[in-house]
Amino acid sequence: MYPAASRVREVLKTGLLSLQPAVADCEWKVEPPQLQGVRIHWPKTLEWDRAWTWMEPLFRGFRLRVPLTLADIPQRLKGIVLIEFHRGGRVYHVGLNYSDDPECTHFGANGTSLDLEFKMQYRNGGYGERNIVPGGYISDAMLVDWYARGPRKVRDRQRFEWDVYGRFGTQFATGIRTQAVEMLKNQRRVEFYGGLRTVSFEKFLGEIARARVCIDLPGNGPFCYRLVNYLAVGACVVSYPHATSMPVPLVDRRHIVYTKPDLSDLVELCERYVNDAPAREAIKDAGREYYRKHLYWRSLADYYLSTMLRTLTQ
Fold first, then answer.
1. Burial level of 281, CB count in 10 A (0-12/13-18/19+)?
2. DSSP string spanning 82-107?
3. Nearest-angstrom CA–CA distance, 217 and 239
4. Within 13 A of 40's CA, how many CA atoms are on the CB side?
5. How far apart are CA 103 and CA 97, in angstroms?
6. What would the pLDDT profile of 24-67 be if each residue is shown by its tens digit?
7. Alpha helix (H) residue ranges in the chain
8. Beta carbons within 8 Å of 28's beta carbon, 6+ residues apart
9. Contact 239, 215 (CB under 8 A)
10. pLDDT tens per residue, range 122-172
């Protein structure tokens, strides 16, 4: 499912990854003078090795902007990467919480005090704690922009093969995923392609581009990597309502289309956007722009840096 680490290194060496979407107009952009004196210490070893797949975009984004040093930082919290933010002779302890559980079950436990915590599955309504902030979300592949170049062009041609598309594994959110797929298979109002079987990452991105509407459903948590991949390619996304929030909220009927919690209007919404090309393409365009400004790895790294500067040193 994931591109090999060697492929990531190969593309990074070419410098072509830096030619992906510009972020100059992003409100999170941090100018070099603001970062004077900032250093980040990153742990030599993560609490869970596989977390590197999802932490790599932040690691590389930080390293582009500030000096980054590998250090022996104890990783004492499950589902959280603990880093150090250094500025002005002070050290701040920051958590990058990638856990799929929207609850912060560790909070308040002895020895777990953090100066700031970025929570990727940030519960709607928050936690009543000023130092826990939304962490956005990251694709399951560092090279999503590299692999999405071709599918973006295909999607923009609007030469569709299917009305509605979605592929899902059955390891997580089995009930909701099975319900949605069965609803789409057992109707004749729109053509559905996909089901409860996954394919390779590159094939998945290519299939996104050939569908008028794409379906987003929960995974192990409310946000799923599939959502970021949809937005990276550019898709009109019809989604089960998220119980979690991004730093900049996704707006229903602007960036995304949310169903009712019981999915009773799933087919109706799919049919509407299959047949309403102007509305569908407007959502696709807004969703892709949302990705470019708020989920692209360099944009997200700037959000983390600007938030650390604002909340820790002022």
1. middle
2. EEEEEETTEEEEEEEE--S-SS-TTT
3. 6
4. 26
5. 11
6. 457 788 999 999 999 999 999 999 988 998 899 999 999 999 99
7. 5-14, 52-65, 144-157, 174-185, 201-208, 225-233, 266-275, 277-290, 297-312
8. 294, 299, 302, 303, 306
9. yes
10. 999 999 999 999 999 998 888 898 899 999 999 999 999 999 999 999 999
Map tokens 């794409």 to a residue: 214
Which pLDDT belongs to residue 120?
Answer: 96
Helical (H) or strand (E) element with 195: strand 192-195
Residue type, 300: L
Contacts of 91 (CB under 8 A, 6+ apart): 84, 85
Name residue, tokens 């050290």. 91
Domains and CATH numbers, the chain: 25-136+297-312 (no CATH), 144-294 (3.40.50.2000)
Mean pLDDT of the chain: 91
230 close to 212: Cβ distance less than 8 angstroms: no
Q: What is the tens place of the pLDDT at every residue in 209-222?
A: 999 999 999 999 99
Could you tell me the two tokens for 299?
């944009």
Structure pTM? 0.91
Query: In terms of residues, how long is the chain?
Result: 314
The larger pLDDT score, comparing residue 101 to residue 113, is at 101
**Dihedral angle over CA of 286, 295, 65, 18, nearest 10:** -70
